[in-house]
Design brief:
The protein is α/β, with parallel strands linked by helices. It has eleven helices and nine strands.
Length: about 300
C-alpha cells in the first residue's frame, strides 16, 4: 500500500494514501477500517491490486475500478456512461430532504438524475415521499434503473424513472403545480474550462458541460421548475462555483421565486442555489393524464 500510495501521489491523485487503502480493501473484500486485521495479499490478489493501482495511476476513476460510489447512506453502482456522484452534491440532497420532510407526503422531482443518487437518497430517507427521477441519456438510464431496482429490493420506496429531456417545455406535464421539492444537478461546466483527467476521460461529456457559459440546461430548468412547483415549493439547483451570482440573478429575474439563497460547499465554494415558488404568478395547464414511462 505504501508503494501504491507513492505511485498514486506521483500521478497527481490528491488522496493517494486513502485510495491505496480503498483499493486494498476492495481486493481483500474487507472494510477499509479492518485492513490492519486482514491477512496479506495472496499472489493473485497482489497482481489484481497492482493492476488496479496502475489503472488509477492512469487516472481512471476510483469508482469505476470498484464499481461503486458512496452517496449519503447509499452505495450506488456506477461505471462508464454515467456521471459519478460527488460528495458536494450530498449537500444539495440534504437541503431537499430537510425541505421535503416538512410535508406529510411530499412529491420530489430529481432532474438530470444520472445514477439516481439524489432521488434514491430522498426515497431512502423519506419513505413517505413520491420521488420522480428524470434522465435522458440511454446509458445513464441503465445505471439509474439498476440502482433503483437494487434500492427497491432492499426495501426503500421505489422511485419513478422517467426518460426525458429536462429542457423539454412540456416536461412532466401532469405534475404542473404539484411538486413540493425539485432538485437538479445539471451539466454546468463552461465548455472552455479544463477539467481533471477523471472527468475529461470518463464522465459523459453531456453530463459535465453546459454550453459556452455553462447555463444551457440551468436556464430552461429554472423556468420549467417554476411551473412544476406548487406555491411555496422549494427549488435547489447545483451550479459551477463561478455561477453563484449569475444563478441567483436568474432566479430573481424570473419573478416567480422568493427567498433566493446561495449555498457553499465544504470547501467554501459557491455550489448551489435555492428558492421558493411564490404563491402568485401563473402556472402552466396540467395535463389530464401522465404516464411515467418507468421500467
Amino acid at each position: 500500500m505504501a508503494r501504491a500510495a507513492r505511485a498514486l501521489a506521483a500521478a497527481g491523485v490528491a488522496s493517494a494514501r486513502a485510495e491505496a487503502e480503498q483499493l486494498a480493501a476492495y481486493v481483500l473484500d474487507v472494510p477499509r477500517g479492518r485492513l490492519a486485521l486482514a491477512d496479506g495479499f495472496t499472489p493473485g490478489q497482489r497482481d489484481r491490486y497492482e493492476a488496479l493501482v496502475a489503472r488509477r495511476v492512469d487516472r481512471e476513476p476510483l469508482q469505476h475500478l470498484t464499481g461503486r460510489a458512496g452517496f449519503r447512506h447509499l452505495e450506488l453502482a456506477v461505471g462508464p456512461g454515467v456521471f459519478v456522484p460527488r460528495p458536494e452534491t450530498e449537500l444539495l440532497a440534504g437541503w431537499g430532504i430537510a425541505r421535503a420532510r416538512a410535508r406529510p407526503a411530499p412529491v420530489v422531482v430529481d432532474l438530470c438524475s444520472g445514477s439516481g443518487a439524489i432521488a434514491l437518497a430522498v426515497a431512502q430517507e423519506l419513505p413517505a415521499a413520491r420521488v420522480v427521477a428524470v434522465e435522458r441519456s440511454p446509458a445513464a438510464l441503465e445505471w439509474l434503473r439498476r440502482n433503483a431496482a437494487e434500492r427497491a429490493a432492499a426495501g426503500d420506496r421505489p422511485v419513478e424513472v422517467v426518460a426525458a429531456d429536462v429542457t423539454d417545455p412540456e416536461l412532466l406535464a401532469g405534475l404542473v403545480g404539484a411538486v413540493d421539492v425539485l432538485l437538479c444537478n445539471p451539466p454546468y461546466v463552461p465548455r472552455a474550462v479544463a477539467v481533471p483527467p477523471e472527468v475529461a476521460g470518463h464522465d459523459p461529456d453531456e453530463a459535465v458541460f453546459g454550453g459556452a457559459d455553462g447555463l444551457d440546461v440551468i436556464r430552461p430548468v429554472l423556468g420549467r421548475a417554476a411551473e412544476l412547483l406548487r406555491p411555496g415549493g422549494g427549488l435547489g439547483v447545483e451550479h459551477d462555483d463561478t455561477h453563484g451570482a449569475v444563478v441567483s440573478a436568474l432566479l430573481t429575474a424570473d419573478g416567480r421565486y422568493a427567498s433566493v439563497e446561495e449555498h457553499r460547499d465544504l470547501a467554501g465554494r459557491s455550489r448551489f442555489a435555492t428558492a421558493s415558488r411564490r404563491a402568485d404568478g401563473p402556472h402552466a395547464v396540467r395535463a389530464e393524464a401522465w404516464q411515467t414511462g418507468s421500467s
